[in-house]
Amino acid sequence: MTMITHGTGIVVDENIPAIEIVREFDAAPEQVFRAHVDPELYAQWVGPRSVATRITRWDARTGGEWAFADDRDGEEIASFFGSFHEVRPHERIVRTFTCEGAPDGVALEILTFAELAGGRTRLTVLSVVEDFTTRDGIVSSGMDVGVIEGFEKLDELLAKEA
Amino acid sequence: MDDSTERLDRAFAALADPIRRDLVARLAGADATVSELAEPHDMSLQAISKHVKVLQDAGLVTRSKDAQRRPVHLDSSVFELMTKWIERYRRQAEERYRRLDDLLGRMGDEEVPEQTGAKDVS
């Protein structure tokens, strides 16, 4: 199933348990890449507004590792960890992603930063998991109450910008 | 859990099986009988019937009352629900990347040295 509307495009493959997300940015690959490897910057955008992202381990180089926790009202609600399999400046990041508490669950994520005309960047994130049940479980997490909450905050933000 | 969520859970569980995904893919083209569905598979009619039953319980397919053939028919409404499900996931990603847009906008003018190495953040 492929859906590309305004902004983020998504491909949920029928043959392999993968999710591919494509998004373009009005910034150079160097900047988009940096927002993915600098822990202070990454913490500012990766989590929903209602949670604070707390980086606990961070070594963004080939063979390095990462971990962070999400806090809501000072209480930890979720934590994640993985390794940086490959970090190629401004071009590519290959990492693993595990949600702590999901037994044996791991995604392999391949991030590609492609330079576009006009100093823009196309980011492609391919996440592959071990089976369709896991993949569909990840997609269905969009049904969570937390997401609805996030959309409301986004609506507020958009209203302010309008 | 509301009714549509429960329905989606059943649909995704039913589709976790590769044979059932194949059956659904073929039914997307045209209705078919159980024996027609069984043909390309090295499986008994009974085994295929079981898979069809799972799809039926998940609300993905229906079987007509035509006593002789009872062709299997794909119910498209479940797929519309799934499309909505994927759309929600997409919007979640879009929300995240709008935060990144904001950040990139703030980064725009400043000259900051590269920071890709190990950092003490404890």
TrEMBL record, chain A:
Q: Domain Activator of Hsp90 ATPase homologue 1/2-like C-terminal: where?
A: 26-158
Which InterPro entries does the entry mention? Answer: ASHA1/2-like_C, START-like_dom_sf
Q: What top-level branch of life does the organism fall under?
A: Bacteria
Could you say which protein family the record assigns here?
Belongs to the AHA1 family.
UniProt-recorded name of the protein:
SRPBCC family protein
- Source organism per entry reads Streptomonospora halophila
From TrEMBL, chain B:
Source species, domain of life = Bacteria
- One Pfam entry for this protein is HTH_20
Which range is the signal sequence, renumbered to this chain? none
Q: Which SUPFAM superfamilies match?
A: Winged helix' DNA-binding domain
| CDD domains (UniProt xref) | HTH_ARSR (cd00090)
Domain HTH arsR-type spans what residues? 1-93
Please give the NCBIfam families that the UniProt record associates with this protein: HTH_metalloreg
Q: What is this protein called?
A: Metalloregulator ArsR/SmtB family transcription factor
* The organism of origin for this protein: Streptomonospora halophila
Q: What is the lineage of its organism?
A: Bacteria, Bacillati, Actinomycetota, Actinomycetes, Streptosporangiales
